[in-house]
Amino acid sequence: MMIKVNLRDILEEKKMTLTELSKETGITMKTLSAFQNQKVESVQFNTLEKITYALDITVEDLITKIVDVFNISIKFETIFNECSESGNFIITWWYNDEFYQNTPVQFKIIRENRENYKRIEFILAKIDDTLPNNLFTMPKIAYDYFERNNLFYNNNSFLELISYLLVQEYITEIATESTIYDQYIINASNIVSAFNTIEISKDEARFTDVGNIFLNNKILYYVNLTSKDPGLHLKRKTIEASDTVTANIESLRNTKFINYINITEDFKREVSLIFD
């Protein structure tokens, strides 16, 4: 059994910052940040009491017990490099911190140098029904959840999360000189049946608030980038071309099935999932 600390969501709901909470409670920013990101082994009752009193909530509001927690990550096969035109990436699932399964996914990649930026498009290969595993091979509880809630693709979906994890891994391992101006696209048209449009003409696209495009026969995910070091946002408001970037996985934080996003010491985003 694991727990989820809801402090970040509660602060957002109350339009309050961690700094303001620190001043209100007398608890250091370091302690509050570690607690919020679940980086502590234990927490004193006095600390919980101060937080809940300041926010006018209960301990049950602040901390939620979770029975089943899954983690998911992506790695490229070792033979894939900056010159490869195709390859495989591996989706790895963990269940309560224990290895569960690996799922290989084939793709092609198109790289274009534009005037002021690079355009990189991953084209996910059509699912081969003769193979034992494909992109949608996953723990049954996850599959049932995505099917029940229609969250295999579209916005805030499994496929969108895979897109962001894929770009994070590509920038980390291959395209380390990417800039905030580069454009990353995941083309999932080959693996998802045609998007069911209602009152949309044949050539009309539906643009979403996160920049994804769902055309009659195309599903494209545009992956937003952000500073690799989250602390940069505390120093200045803009990201410059010289800054090291990564996929903005934090932008998916409000996705229903994401439990929390942990940022490691080398600034890699690790994603934990829950399925109610």
- How many separate structural domains? 2
- How many alpha or pi helices? 8
Low-confidence stretches: 194-209
Looking across the biggest beta sheet, what order are the strands in?
A: 8-9-10-7-6-5-4-3-14-13
Q: Which outline best applies?
A: globular
Helix content: 10-25%
In round numbers, the mean pLDDT is: 87
Structural class, please?
alpha+beta
Walk me through this protein's architecture.
- This protein is α+β, with helices and mostly antiparallel strands and 276 residues long.
- The protein folds into 2 domains: 2-66, lambda repressor-like DNA-binding domains (434 Repressor (Amino-terminal Domain), Orthogonal Bundle); 71-273, no CATH class.
- Helices cover 24% and strands 29% of the residues.
- The chain is built from 8 helices and 14 strands.
- It has helices spanning 7-13, 18-25, 29-36, 45-55, 59-62, 140-148, 158-173, 232-235; strands spanning 2-5, 63-66, 70-76, 86-95, 98-113, 118-124, 183-187, 206-207, 213-215, 218-223, 225-227, 245-247, 258-263, 269-273.
- Strands 8-9-10-7-6-5-4-3-14-13 form a 10-stranded mixed β-sheet, with helices on one face. A two-stranded antiparallel sheet has the order 1-2. The protein has a two-stranded antiparallel ribbon with strand order 11-12.
- Strand 5 (98-113) and strand 6 form a beta hairpin.
- The radius of gyration is 20 Å and the shape is globular.
